[in-house]
Known about the structure:
The structure is a homodimer. By secondary structure, chain A is mostly beta strands. Chain A has a domain at 18-100: Jelly Rolls. The first copy, chain A, contains one helix and eight strands. In chain A, strands 2, 3, 4, 5, 6, 7 and 8 form a seven-stranded antiparallel β-sheet that branches. In chain A, a hairpin with a 2-residue loop joins strand 5 (60-64) and strand 6. The radius of gyration of chain A is 14 Å and the shape is globular. At the A-B interface, strand 1, strand 2, strand 4, strand 6 and strand 7 of A face strand 1, strand 2, strand 4, strand 6 and strand 7 of B.
Amino acid sequence: MQYEAISLLGKFAKFSDHYRPRVIAEMNDYQFKVVRVQGDFVWHSHEETDETFLVLDGELTIDFRDGAVVLGRGDLFVVPKGKEHKPHAVAECKLLLIEPRGTVNTGKAGGALTAPDDVWI
Amino acid sequence: MQYEAISLLGKFAKFSDHYRPRVIAEMNDYQFKVVRVQGDFVWHSHEETDETFLVLDGELTIDFRDGAVVLGRGDLFVVPKGKEHKPHAVAECKLLLIEPRGTVNTGKAGGALTAPDDVWI
């Protein structure tokens, strides 16, 4: 049989809202999520896990309490567990997130930007 | 302080051999590895874990005993644990692999293409 690869760009063509991650695949108990971001996210942390950001298009800045990192297209960064961070992007940025199943986008911070978990596309 | 993002292309500029994965980052007990592939790999499986392939440039085919999948640039595929597979590429292909720390590239198949584990770049 012919197995089907998952096209990241193809997944992005299916939605347009910001800060609403969609799951596209699972590896053991981890998930791959695509998300469009623009504007400011909220300060939050994930107490139980590291979180990986891979920028597919655009530019993302992640602020920390002690600094920041800027990611362009093709750049990867792993935010250590427990480290407070606030992502933001001036123009729209396309991201691949990799993190354990059940990771909520705002951690325990809550608020209006908290997205439904485990939404597949 | 200014944190540094990991440039995938920048990592690829540092090596040229094939089927020799290099670790570029860790997330919990998982590793991100960059690898150049060209030609045939060996049939093998990973009995303990799924394995994720993300094609960054070129085209990769992964044969299974019951079929195959073809990945182009920006395509992702998760090979389920225990599933025998044989990657191959006619022209050079650049990959990002994501799998648990300690995953050997040839599984238990061994042979000349078995790469040293946990080599960072």
